Structures are given as C-alpha cells and as structure tokens.
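Entry 14. Structure prediction run on the chain below.
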Amino acid sequence: MGMFSKKSYIGVDMGHHTIKVIQFEKQANGWRVQRVAQTMTPPDAIKDGVVVDVASLSARLKAMCKENNIHASGAMIAVSGGSVVVRQVRMPKMAEATLRRSIKFEASRYVPNSVEDSYIEFEIIGPVDENQMDVLMVAAPKDVVESRMQACESAGLEVESVDIEAFAMYRALVEADLDNEWAEKTVALVDVGSATTNVSVVSNSVFSMTRSIPQGADTLTQALKSYFKLSDEDAESGKAQLDLRELLEEGKPKENPPLRVLQPHVDDLVREIRRSLNYYQSQQQEGSQAKTIDHILLTGGGAKLMGLAEYFSHKLTIPTTLQDVFANPRVAHMGDPDESGLDLSVASGLAMRAFAKAA
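Output returned:
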C-alpha cells in the first residue's frame, strides 16, 4: 500500500437494538478514540442476524456517520447468533490443503444450515498425537454475511473483513489488555446484548465454543413494562435504578417489587449460562487435562445493570468482572470520563483489526 493511499477504517457493530461505530488512531502504546457514535437500529431491520431491511439500516448508518463527522472508506464488520458456528473439533491429521478441499464434508456434521449456503473457514490449532489434530471451525450463513455487507456498502463503506463478534470482543478485552493475564487462562466471555446473550469459552487464547442465548437486556425491560404498565422509556429508566446486589443481602432483603419481577428472568439467564459452561466441560476431549473456567468477563449493554457481575459471580460461583474497553489504559478516550464502553467491545475489536491488517 502506497504511503499516500492509506485508507481509513471504522468498526461497525450492527445489533438488533443499536448500531455502534468506533474509529481509532494507532499510538505507540495503544489506541486513541477518534470518533465514536451510536444510533437506534431501525425497528425490525435485523432478524436472526440477517439485515432484512437493508435500505433503512444503511440510511441510518450513513446519517449517523455524517452527523458525527466520521469519515471512513472501509468498514470492519462481524456476525454472531445461533446460526453462526464456532467449534473446536478433533479430526484425522491432514495437510491444510487437503482439509480445505474436504472442509465442507467435515463441517456438515456440525453446521445446522446447508454447508452450500454457508461460508466456512478453519484454523488448524495443532496436533494431538500421530493421527489426530484439533481444528477451530467457523461457519456463518451466507445471508447473514452478505446482508450486512450490503448494508455497509449501500452506506458508502467498503467492507474490508467480516469477523466473528466473539473474536472481535476477545481482541478488544483480552489481547489489548496487558494488565491482566486472561490470555493464559480459561475465560468465559459473556456479552449481554439487547436480544441475545453470547457466551464464548476461550482457553489459552484458543476458542473452544460459542453459544447464543435468545435472551438479553430487553427481556428485563419488557418484564417491567408488562408488570407495571410502563412505557419503554420509563421501564428502561426504572431498570437503570435497580441494583441486583440487594437480592444477595444476608438475612431478608428489603422488599423491592421491581427487583422481584426481574429476578426470575435473571435467574433464567444464569441457568442458561451455567448450561453453556457445563456443555464446555462435557465436550472436553478424553485424555486432555480438565480445564475449569477461571473467570467470567462480562460485557455488553445489558451488563450495565447494577450488580449483575456480583450476581453472576454469586450464582455461578465463578469470579466475574465487568470488562469495559474504555477502562483499558491503552485505550485513550478524550470524551466523557464516565462514559461506558461496555457496549463497544465488539466495535472496538473490529476497529483494532484494521491496524493488525495494516501490519
């Protein structure tokens, strides 16, 4: 790439509830936030990860970039959801070229959709013994990938790469954070979004599994809205004032009707997360050293609910930490010092990939 043809990139996170964009400038010791913006996703524009209303979403994305003086020619995007498969599998040892020729056949055992209608990639992790090797396999439906690419391109952005949301999140929260040693441990990334909660287990920097739970922060908002007959705005406002730590108080916690409305839904989410982590344990290969989850890294817009990390830690008996991308000293942010980056980990990880690509 010539020195006068340098392209500018943004990370674009297209969620069911909000579209988030961030642009970084690389610095010697990390990154500086140049621009960051969010806007509401047009109602029903995304369904099961597929952009079903490309025109309205691309118009919203283009308008947001213009209003926030975000000038970029390239976009890094990502996909996630129940139809996106990230799985570590064990298979007979073979050359990479041979595996590439047979990957569709191998993937057909794990991909719920037609392999012909999916993009499939893989990475050979390494040999297990003389006859077997571990492979990380990734598959995403073509309509999920292509609809998101089309939305960006209609907004005037050339898509440079399509990532997996969990990979982008790991890049922003673990690889970019030199103060912790998460990369050397077995951690669960729990991203609580609006419509879904994504759970990934990463052991020694190798992804072992991802799972999408069809329950997110909006479930809690709707529970308050329905029970107390509130508007969406009042339900959101009320939820922001609640603190789940009250439910963990010894003795009899003080009576708090809104918290009692939320509790069964939060407990449902806890059960689904526990089920995901138990599945990871059950899928570990025979003969391999058992790996327990050392830590849960909690992120996403839904993680802003006060006390959620402490509640998860108590119920799952696994240390749980809120991971805010802006809390990383390597990420310089000149805006509001109290601004949360909990819901920007995916967009940040995508924006960071631009510099890895350039290198």
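Residues 18 and 40 are 4 Å apart (CA to CA).
Filed with the rest of this week's runs.
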